[in-house]
Amino acid sequence: MAADPSSQVLVTGAGGFVGQALVRALAQHCRVTATDRSGLEFADLAGVTGVPGDLDDPALLAALTAAPFDAIVHLATVPGGAAEADPALAARVNVAASMALIDAAAAHGNRPRVLFASSIAVFGDPLPAYVDDATAARPMLRYGAHKAMIEEWIATMTRRGAIRGLSLRLPGIVARPLGPSGMKSAFLSNLFHALKAGEPISLPVSAGASCWLLSRRGLIAQLCQALDLPAHPADARLNLPAQRVILRDLVAEVARQTGRDPALVDYAPDPAIEAAFGRQPPLATPRADALGLRHDGSLGALVAQALADL
Question: Are 192 and 175 in contact (CB under 8 A)?
Fold first, then answer.
């Protein structure tokens, strides 16, 4: 975001893998209010106010939105596997709380910039042979459906002139920390950890599986740039640039950069996981490209950026 120490930015999901890095990046240029259930470890940062709590708590939401923000980055979510396991919680957080946040932000009348972390899950599976900006959303998971719902609400509120909204469809982001994440795609990050540690790992997809990937550092750069875009698509949606990576190539590159034997990795395809995360076709993102958003540039750069964060 452009340097303006007076700018006020709210980041939800700020204690997460992406949120922590985004808050640290934004804190260099503006004042940040960071909220999440946990992980608000920003005591070393001047200009960052941590507000712990659940976004679906009306009292917390009212306190957060009592004053206007110049921009909001809405990362908080109940992800795919967790949303399927607890549909009621997912609906409260992903839909009801998200709509309430957008409405409360709009009520101040200052037309804040609202960036929403949507997902490629809106496309569902099976995917078509090619995905571009014209590909329709047809989600299969609750998580993807919830993302599509909030995309539409943001587009509606933008058309009404209440906010300046933009939904960014995130690809797979690597490499997330080990441990329960509620994400069915966690194996993509676990691969980096296993090879760095020299430990064997079995992947639930085939060696020829294809995935859209972006490093966390690459994503943070795109999010910061998106906050400053002077214009955005009329439908307030963007597919983010990402690399289409073949798993055997990813394994080989991670093994090369960590000095490990790629034979530590074996493949035990799960048909459902392969269908959802291992058959991602060629991806074109001309609208994002035209706005200057870029992926990591090469497989080697993606892997290096991901390993640097472990």
Answer: yes
